[in-house]
Amino acid sequence: MKFKNEAFTDFAVPENAARLARALQDARRDFGQGYPAVINGRRHHTRKSIRSLNPSLSKEVVGTATDSNLSLADQALESATRAFQRWRGVPVEERAALLRRMAARLRTQKAELTAWIIYEVGKNWAEADADVAEAIDFLEYYAELAVRPPPALTPVAHEHNRYRYLPLGPVVVIPPWNFPLAILAGMSAAALVTGNTVVLKPSSQSPVIGARFFEAARACGVPEGVMNFLPGSGSAIGDYLVKDRRTRMVAFTGSLSVGLRINALAAQPQKGQRWIKRVIAELGGKNAIVVDESADIERAAAEVAASAFGYQGQKCSACSRVFVHKRIYEAFEDRILAQIRALRIGPSAVRENTMGPVISKAAQLGIQRHIALGEKHGRLLHGGRAILDRDGFYLEPTLIGRLPNSSPLWVEEIFGPVLAIAPVGSLEEGIRRANETAYGLTGAVYTRDPKRLQLAAETFFCGNLYLNRKCTGALVGGHPFGGFNLSGTDSKAGGPEYLLQFSQPQAISARRE
Ligand code: NAP
Fold first, then answer.
1. What is the share, in percent, of the chain residues with pLDDT greater than 90?
2. Is 319 known to be catalytic?
3. How far is the CA of 204 from the CAs of 175, 182, 209, 236, 237, in angstroms?
4. Which of 253, 313, 250, 247 is nearest to 286 (CA)?
């Protein structure tokens, strides 16, 4: 493959920092703008709208979006169904070229998109920049994958046999807010390049980024109706979109409960439906890192802290449990506390702040409920409080120890800056504890012993296992991403087989006289 990952921006270079600072000022001037639903090229507004707030400064409305109703959902599915008849026949090379143009455009808009991500979901500069880079990667990687020839068939005497991939039909794309550009762009691009049409329902926490991606796609030549932008509440229009007989596939990334609901609803055939719906559901995690007594403690502590508190723990891959060999436990606890104390909390638009807010008041309250349980059953080693003297949804980075094995904090996804820590007697015990969850997304092991690394590879059951490396920061192409068990449907975003999920293979066999 020729594909290479997009480089991250080095903000130590003064021009780069100045460019983003300017983009942040420019974005602020456009705050409060309205973003309509766009169906078959027509813009639609509703009386009710979704208000997208800046979680760093929650009085600020970043933008408002159409709160689509069932009538608009119906129109969007109809538009995608009609457009499919044309789009399915467009040569794959043209569809791939479109994705490359979109990648090139996002590259020119990098600072602008980074600024909007910082404001709309509270990522710090580096995390927001990485989100844009990942979106560019998905576009370029899938463009290259799409034009690969299909696998060769076994020759059969007196026959000419072919194998090809056909598109499926209208795909409902439902992304989360935590990678508001990358995941939304990745799922949409995979659907488009394989010849499907898209109804894109962005998260209600990040419709502005969704709209900006949609605008970029349209400017690059995505035809009317081939992609339809449908901001709206998942609880109001989600079931309708999933159940409708015109929906051929649902590409979802989000929470376990919503994913299971979508999977169940999509499995029930509707009157007139002629296919079994395909569902990709990439869900949550309860990821663990195991550190043994031979590990480089300093490095392990720094990387555990980065995995646990990067983007305030709001990554599906975030580390939320760390098991440390009892011989180094105290030293490790000291080091990780030092790492936590060095975090600087505040508005994400300020470059020096390493930790911003969590996404919403509801998230802040939910995380606090988990912390209260942890405090009741275990011991708060650091943090635990919401920071209420600021106009945003801030929480202290929190470390909890001495939790009994029965605590829900060992098994439930918290999706916030909360890390549970426990000593273990051996690496084996650590891995056993790590596997004691119904999720299976990411995990990591730190040890200098090659035999133990081998043991970890054989026994640590998760979709993305990292050895002597943090458990966040997967790169498209290099780290195909997706979890086992209740973490998902094993589709591996950014991996060599991802596009197969969006296609149906056909075998054509012709007798040769
Ligand atoms: P969420 O609450 O499940 O929402 C995800 C999307 O589903 C949103 O667009 C939401 O719309 C929509 N939705 C809600 N109810 C729906 C319904 N009944 N039918 C159809 N769609 C519905 O998740 P989130 O809070 O946005 O994201 C965080 C979760 O995503 C975490 O659990 C995280 O681990 C997971 N995640 C997983 C991966 C992965 O690759 N495995 C990657 C990133 C995140 P509204 O916003 O309008 O409610």
1. 99
2. no
3. 10, 16, 11, 11, 12
4. 313
CATH of domain 287-475: 3.40.309.10
The predicted pLDDT at position 513 comes to 82
Q: Which of 164, 154, 261, 244 is nearest to 199 (CA)?
A: 244
> Mean pLDDT score of the chain, rounded to an integer?
98
Counting every residue written for the chain, the total comes to 513
Dist. CA 422–CA 401, nearest whole Å: 6
Residue nearest to atom 40 of ligand 1 (CA): 282
Residue 254 CA to ligand 1 center (angstroms) comes to: 3
Rg (CA), the chain: 23
Q: Residue 85: pLDDT band by 50, 70, 90 thresholds?
A: very high
Q: Where are the domains of the chain?
A: 14-283+491-509, 287-475
Active site residue 316: yes
> Domain 14-283+491-509 has what CATH class?
alpha beta
Query: What is the CA(213)–ligand 1 centre distance, in A?
Result: 18
C-alpha 253 to ligand 1 mean position (Å): 6
**pLDDT (tens digit, 9 = 90+) per residue, 408-467?**
999 999 999 999 999 999 999 999 999 999 999 999 999 999 999 999 999 999 999 999
DSSP H or E segment with residue 445: strand 442-446
**Ligand 1 center–CA 313 separation, angstroms:** 16
Token couple for 30: 């456009």
List pLDDT tens digits, range 128-177.
Answer: 999 999 999 999 999 999 999 999 999 999 999 999 999 999 999 999 99
Q: Which of 255, 257, 358 to mutate to test the pocket of ligand 1 (most atoms within 8 A of CB)?
A: 255
Strands 278-282 and 159-167: unpaired
Nearest CA to ligand 1 atom 15: 234
Nearest-CA residue for ligand 1 atom 2 is 255
Question: Global pTM?
Answer: 0.98
The number of C-alpha atoms within 13 Å of 288 and in the hemisphere containing its C-beta is 32
Both structure tokens of 301: 């502590």
Q: Which residues contact 295 (CB under 8 A, 6 or more apart)?
A: 328, 446, 447, 448, 468
The helix/strand/coil state of 153 is coil
290 vs 303: CA distance, rounded Å = 12
- Distance between CA atoms of 416 and 396, rounded to whole angstroms? 10
Active-site position among 112, 140, 282, 413: 282
Q: What is the pLDDT of residues 177-197, one digit of tens each?
A: 999 999 999 999 999 999 999
d(CA 266, CA 241): 10
pLDDT in tens, 91-103: 999 999 999 999 9
Query: How far, CA to CA in Å, does 220 sit from each of 11, 106, 191?
Result: 28, 10, 16
